[in-house]
Amino acid sequence: MANYSAPGPISGLAALAPRYDAVLCDVWGVLHNGVASFPPARAALAAFRAAGGTVVLITNAPRTSPFIVEQIAELGVPAASYDAIVTSGDVTRELLAAKAPARLRHIGPEQHLSLYEGLDLPLASVDEAEIVSCTGLRDDIHETPEDYEAELAALAARGLPMICANPDIVVERGHQLVYCAGALAARYDALGGSTSVAGKPHPPIYDAALERVAAIRSGPIALDRVLAIGDGAPTDLAGAYRHGIDVLFVTGGIHSGHFGPADAPDTAAVHRFLEDEGLGATAFLPSLVW
């Protein structure tokens, strides 16, 4: 693991950029908030690429990367800001393919059904399913995990394995926190069910992202030349930390309430937070800028 127990604040990515050949950057919370993208973050990644670096966006989105390319373009993220995208949906699809043929219970919105296209996984009821795939809440604006208690309990009682396509517990959409698939997977575990997760903080998505970096740069690079950027402790920070990758902590994301003024996070508060979480970072800043 990288050694970074007491990170200091930096003014922007430019302060670290010469030390790294590649960046693995979180999307939701760093590059956009689900409603609009952040121009300084877009510019920072573009500047890193212009200086010769490689940027792979790494996201717990439960859809495959072509959908995310389209989504972030609509939010104003230009192609110049990144080289490739690896999603939790991409790696989850590989896990699901290994389960075919099987009857599948999908928990999530209909727009995520594209995740199963081309796979021999017909949708089934709670009583007929053989596996469970959770991509999120069906209506994350109005529902909470408590609305799924009976369904999850019935599936767990049958001993069905769940494949969770998005480990995030919550994300910030605009100024509202909404629950994600990870919240349902955590409850499923508590009810005695078993879950498999491919997205952050778990290794498969990092392995896939590093493979993309190697393909783009025509060969693998050392881990100490890779920087992860993220705002979520249980996902971005934990995943990079466990994978031995340096991390730039964006404090103005989902944990911003811990650090005082959003534009001037208190260093001692950041250190206490990381210590409490058993994590670390190479450096931190309120939002991604160059």
UniProtKB/TrEMBL annotation:
One of its GO terms (cellular component) is cytoplasm. CDD domains: HAD_like. The keyword Hydrolase applies. Pfam families: Hydrolase_6, Hydrolase_like. It comes from the Bacteria. Keywords: Hydrolase. GO terms for molecular function: phosphatase activity. The keyword Hydrolase applies. This is HAD-superfamily class IIA hydrolase, TIGR01459. It comes from Kaistia soli DSM 19436.
